Amino acid sequence: MTALPSKTDKKLGLVIDLDTCVGCHGCVTACKGWNTQNYGAPLSDQDAYGADPSGTFLNRVFSYEAEKSGCASQTVHMPRSCLHCEDAPCVTVCPTGASYKREEDGIVLVNEDRCIGCGLCAWSCPYGARELDREAGVMKKCTLCVDRIYNENLPEEDRVPACVRTCPAGARHFGDLGDPDSDVSKLVADRGGFDLMPDLGTKPVNKYLPPRPKDQLDTAPLNTVADEPKGFLGWLDKALDKL
Amino acid sequence: MHPAPSVIIFTTFSGLGFGLLAWMGLGIPDVGGMTLLAFFVIAYVLAAGGLLVSTFHLGNKKNAIYAFSQWRTSWLSREGVAAVVTLLLFGLIALARIFMGADMAFSGAIGSVLALITVFTTSMIYTQLKTISRWNQPLTPVLFLLHAIAGGALLAGEVKIAGVLLAALAVVMWLHWQQGDARAANRGSLGDATGLGHLGEVRMFESGHTGGNYVLDEMVYRVGRKHAQKLRMIALGAGAVLPAAILLLTPAGHATAFIALALHIAGAIVGRWLFFAEAEHVVGLYYGK
Questions:
Q1: CATH number of the domain to which A148 belongs
Q2: Which residues contact B83 (CB under 8 A, 6 or more apart)?
Q3: Are the C-beta atoms of residues B164 and B248 closer than 8 Å to each other?
Q4: Cβ contact A95:B70 at 8 Å
Q5: Is residue A239 domain-resident?
Q6: Which residues of A touch B218 (CB under 8 A)?
Q7: CA triple A86-B82-B99, angle to 5 deg
């Protein structure tokens, strides 16, 4: 059924630190690599080496610039992927039951053996987190690396989503956001983690940590002390003017 | 939103077909025998043909049978179920009326209600989407239902009723655009979408991808917005105002009804194209669009 579970035992998700992310796109590449070789249909590319390449990705990093008048601008890199919403509209709109939210850990997944590729779930998602794979014709989305996090064939340090494992800046954190004592929940509480577009009522599980405020120069720039060149440079200036 | 031809054809023609069935359930037009058969064939070709065309844009048609399973939560699934039940019931009504001369008044009335429910479920697929504020308004189902019953009345030969309904449609089309514009204007800014508004004015520095992708093609389609005003006038004039004027002001006749029908269908297709093409999805904010 595409009914949402009334509650989930855990709320596994990501906490993304916008202060720390350097916008290297390492998570994008790691995600594409892992999810092309594992869960479900591979993430295909179209015209990959041609003039108009495109492809399916489950995670993309956008860069924004914020500026208050009179202050220096601030660049913020924002990785965006599925937020595994508690009230996920993509699940309830699905006509086939392919889109579902797991009761045990809250992960939102697509059962590709049921998906008809109608695209309605992508229409219902405010975050652009779902992309229809043009080769397989099924909807692809972040699985929170469900095939890594419980995989006992992997060393323990690798049992986190590929994006978290690869992040060189330590900007991505994985854990149970339903447990107030978990590291991720404490991080969210300490840093004032926020939801994306909360007014749409999706109740995202993933949280973003806001960039720390940047300090501003409060002294005026130094006065110009030498408008007119003197000495040798002054002579050179006049000599060149006369030429 | 990307105006997929299959979805435009589906919503326009199956709406028209179910609209005609809604009148036929009530015994309008009052004909029998081969004439009635011809009416049923027209209604079925429009309704079932439209539904069939709607499957053309599916990425994975082989799983289509599952689409009838989630009627408890999904409007798209409800639409599939409602359409099939309606068509099956009208199949029985058609057999009984054409070959046995039965009235089938009661089951016909139920069929009419089901046909309208089917159109309503179609409209709810779009109305339910909070991400597209232009569609997420109470007038969207009214717009779809009026299209269906006005077009259906025209096909059923009830030209004066059709004229009045088309005049009402003109008013609803205009109100839907006014409401839609106001709602679309309130969809927020890049600062709201990113939650970075407190840092100042937020602008896009670099997109997450240099090439195209599904999200851009499907949900950040903006071609329709350039000529939106002109297309609205065409949709309003051809789809509702002109046919209403023809039907209400000229003596009833096959020629005028045919001209009104042709105008209405052309206008409805333009209007439905615009319905998709000018709709702004909230994800466009993340692209600064």
A1: 3.30.70.20
A2: B14, B18, B47, B51, B118
A3: yes
A4: yes
A5: no
A6: 119, 122-123, 132
A7: 170
* Distance of residue A122 Cα from the nearest chain B Cα, in angstroms: 8
A118–B contact, CB cutoff 8 A: yes
Contacts of A28 in chain B (CB under 8 A): 208
Query: Rounded to an integer, what distance in angstroms lies between the CA atom of residue B264 and that of residue B244?
Result: 9
- Among residues B76, B141, B136, the alpha carbon closest in space to that of A119 is found at B76
CA distance A225 to A222: 9
CA B230, B231, B236, B238 torsion-angle sign: positive
Q: Distance between CA A190 and CA B59 in Å, rounded? A: 44
> Could you tell me if residue A6 is inside a domain?
no
* A108 φ/ψ angles, rounded to the nearest 5 degrees: -95, 125
Query: CA–CA separation, B275 vs B221, rounded Å?
Result: 12
Burial B212-224 (b: 16+ CB within 10 A, else e): ebbbbebbbbeeb
How does residue B221 score in pLDDT terms, banded at 50, 70 and 90?
confident
Q: What is the pLDDT of residues A48-76, one digit of tens each?
A: 999 999 999 999 999 999 998 888 889 99
pTM: 0.92
Interface pTM, i.e. ipTM: 0.93
Measuring CA to CA, how many Å separate B234 from each of B174, B206, B241, B269? 12, 38, 10, 10
Tokens of A49: 């080496």
Indicate yes or no: CB of A56 within 8 angstroms of CB of B131. no
Residue A42 in contact with residue A32, Cβ under 8 Å?
no
Contact criterion met (CB < 8 Å) for B74 and A95: yes
CA distance B287 to A80: 12
Interatomic CA distance for residues B262 and B251, integer angstroms = 18
- Asked if B260 and B246 touch (Cβ cutoff 8 Å), the reply is yes
- Helix ranges (H only) for chain B are 5-9, 15-25, 33-54, 75-100, 105-127, 139-155, 159-185, 190-194, 214-219, 228-236, 242-249, 254-277
Residue of A nearest to B129 (CA): A124
Both tokens assigned to A150: 């419980």
3-state secondary structure of B118: helix
Residue A40: give the domain boundaries. Answer: 12-209
- Tell the burial category of A46 from Cβ atoms under 10 Å away from its Cβ (0-12, 13-18, 19+): middle
pLDDT, tens digit, for every residue of B250-283? 988 889 999 999 999 999 999 999 999 999 999 9
Q: Say if residues A187 and A171 touch (Cβ distance below 8 Å).
A: no
Is A64 within 8 Å of A78 (Cβ atoms)?
Answer: yes
- Neighbouring C-beta atoms of residue B254, cutoff 10 Å: 9
Assess if residue A228 is contained within a domain: no
Domain count across chain A:
1
> Minimal CA–CA distance to A112: which of A125, A104, A121, A103?
A121
